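Bumping with the actual sequence this time:
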Amino acid sequence: MNRQELIGQIRQKRSFLCVGLDTDPKKMPQCVFDLYDPIFEFNKAIIDATAPYCVAYKPNLAFYEAYGIKGMKAFVDTCNYIKQNHPHHLIIADAKRGDIGNTSTMYARTFFEEYDVDALTVAPYMGEDSVTPFLSYPGKWVILLALTSNKGSHDFQLTEDPSGQRLFEKVILKSQEWGTPENMMYVVGATQGKMFEDIRRVAPDHFLLVPGVGAQGGSLQDVCRYGMNKDCGILVNSSRGIIYACNDDHFAEIAGNKARELQQEMAEELEKAGI
């Protein structure tokens, strides 16, 4: 899915919702454990219920790798199910890869050739040669960690150099020498509030992937007020607030209701912005 297709889906669905598939068997309802592959069956039900209200899905690799081969099979089956049954949704592998060039080349091959996802989260700490292998795939997205929603983000990301430039700003500005708004997004946590204004000063046109709305306390309205651009330019991720909203046989129905509620709020924000 290229940039214009993504913008088209946002306009058509009146939504910029990304549903995070942080699928944890310890939190799944008992009813799915009678099925052959509980993780996949849980995901499939969530996807079918939420697909009308979102434009992207973000499986978090940690929740699949933790269960070895069975978990990774569930991840692959989940991605294939989205491609086959809901093909107009962006698939983001939240894996936060990034290593020396040869290793990144193999990571890129894994996710963009073997798994054939649309986008991958990438850690920029090791610099240009750790990121550019991911950018060599036409039609694929790199989503670079920039200013995250966790408490520890302040340990490094807000540190300043002698000129007063903060590390997250340096990451964003430098990375624009490698990628463009057509193939690179940035992760910016919803809990950062007015900091989105600072992000937009250095990255006015790029899409931002925004975790932290809902369970982590981020405000959708603040994200839109400070982070939205003329193309919308944001994908807001919600995981726990949707997929674990109910823990009985009605889990998928309630997840769909929660996604619809967020979509309706997003439609209002798009209307306010004239999009």
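The tokens above came from a reply further down the thread. The radius of gyration is 18 Å.
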